[in-house]
């Protein structure tokens, strides 16, 4: 294990130097991170994927699961845009579902904070990663969470339903289940039907279990009744979302398809136009967008704090390996960590250990 980590460290340092040469400032981040901050960003689900412990003075802390959150905190406290940062070091992730994967490994990252043209910044970061990884047999994939969120905001649906869909954009199965229920394609669960049919659902509820008060439970029941009284979501609206989620083409063809969908969902047109400007900026940096892959759903299950452009580089001949590099835009995250301030930010990470695996199996 020591030799493996030493080899990873050497490769990480080599990659970090590439980003330093591109104008990034090297930064260091503590291995122990505030659990409260990470829970606020990721939600309670992160406990199943991280190592949590108690610090006598700081309370609950986590072994560093990534670098983006502490780098954003650092920048929002003292940084000025444009700023470029790089880092390398170990991160720690529990791998209960994939015990064959390492739970301790190195990451190397590049983060760009720039208040100017977002399309140009997106293109700069992607092109830098593409150039850094060009000697490896990798397949680049891109997406845009902002296009899907814009489409959901454009639906003719009540605000509570819209908010529920927005909360679950990063949980594809739950998102699909909500769409099916709202449109009438899936029946209401019998337990919920019985709850809503009861004149006083709490009358025979038995002892209270959990942290919710009676008032909070009653408020939730009232919300469920209001939602049940709402008519089904228009099937044509659901079909537009289905069509959008099915877009999986090269950027050039995807852009045409997205413009067609935006005719019926005009609220998503500004997001599509941002995608078009990004394609132009990528092409100006030598990226062949006529061959670059685009998937509307890319990153929805693994890139929780990204809210716009997303990308990944996956091994073309090693489907058993996770992505070698991932990244994207996370403007909203800066607002959550910026204590009233926000910034435009885009970045990505590379896993040097996976690159070494590719070299040894080539």
Automatic annotation (TrEMBL):
Q: Which InterPro entries match?
A: aa-tRNA-synth_II (IPR006195), aa-tRNA-synth_II/BPL/LPL (IPR045864), HisRS-like_core (IPR041715), HisRS/HisZ (IPR004516)
Q: Which Pfam families match?
A: tRNA-synt_His
User: Which residues are in the Aminoacyl-transfer RNA synthetases class-II family profile domain?
Assistant: 15-270
Q: Name one GO molecular function term.
A: histidine-tRNA ligase activity
Gene Ontology biological-process entries: histidyl-tRNA aminoacylation
Q: Does the keyword Transferase apply?
A: yes
Q: Which UniProt keywords apply?
A: Glycosyltransferase, Transferase
Amino-acid positions noted as binding L-histidine in the UniProt annotation, renumbered to this chain: 66-68, 93, 107, 111, 300, 305-306
GO annotations of cellular component type? cytoplasm
What's the subunit arrangement here?
A: Homodimer.
User: NCBIfam families of this UniProt entry?
Assistant: PRK12295.1-5
Q: Can you say what this protein is called?
A: Histidine--tRNA ligase
Name the source organism: Salipiger aestuarii
Q: What is the lineage of its organism?
A: Bacteria, Pseudomonadati, Pseudomonadota, Alphaproteobacteria, Rhodobacterales
């Amino acid at each position: 294990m020591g030799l493996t980590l030493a080899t990873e460290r050497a490769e990480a340092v080599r990659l970090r130097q590439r980003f330093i040469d591109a104008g990034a400032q090297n930064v260091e981040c503590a291995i122990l991170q505030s659990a409260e901050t990470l829970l606020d960003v990721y939600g309670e689900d992160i406990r199943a994927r991280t190592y949590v412990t108690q610090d006598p003075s700081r309370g609950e802390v986590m072994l560093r699961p990534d670098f983006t959150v502490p780098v954003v905190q650092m920048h929002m406290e003292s940084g000025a845009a444009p700023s470029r940062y790089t880092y390398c070091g170990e991160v720690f992730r529990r791998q209960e579902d994939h015990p064959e994967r390492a739970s301790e490994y190195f990451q190397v990252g590049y983060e760009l904070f720039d208040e100017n043209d977002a399309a140009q910044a997106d293109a700069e970061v992607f092109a830098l990663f593409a150039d850094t990884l060009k000697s490896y047999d990798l397949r680049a994939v891109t997406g845009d969470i902002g296009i899907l969120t814009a489409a959901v905001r454009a639906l003719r649906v009540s605000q509570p339903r819209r908010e529920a869909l927005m909360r679950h954009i990063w949980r594809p199965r739950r998102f699909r289940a909500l769409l099916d229920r709202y449109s009438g394609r899936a029946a209401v669960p019998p337990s919920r039907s019985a709850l809503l049919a009861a004149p006083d659902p709490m009358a025979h509820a038995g002892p209270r279990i959990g942290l919710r008060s009676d008032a909070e439970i009653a408020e939730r029941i009232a919300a469920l009744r209001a939602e049940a009284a709402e008519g089904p979501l228009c099937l044509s609206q659901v079909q537009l979302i289905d069509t959008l989620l099915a877009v999986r083409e090269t950027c050039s063809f995807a852009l045409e398809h997205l413009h067609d969908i935006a005719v019926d969902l005009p609220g998503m047109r500004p997001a599509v136009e941002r995608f078009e400007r990004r394609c132009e900026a990528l092409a100006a940096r030598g990226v062949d967008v006529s061959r670059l892959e685009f998937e509307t759903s890319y990153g929805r299950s693994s890139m929780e704090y990204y809210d716009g452009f997303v990308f990944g580089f996956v091994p073309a001949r090693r489907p058993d390996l996770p992505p070698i590099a991932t990244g994207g835009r996370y403007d909203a995250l800066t607002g959550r960590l910026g204590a009233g301030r926000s910034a435009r930010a885009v970045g990505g990470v590379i896993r040097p250990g996976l690159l070494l695996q590719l070299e040894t199996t080539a």
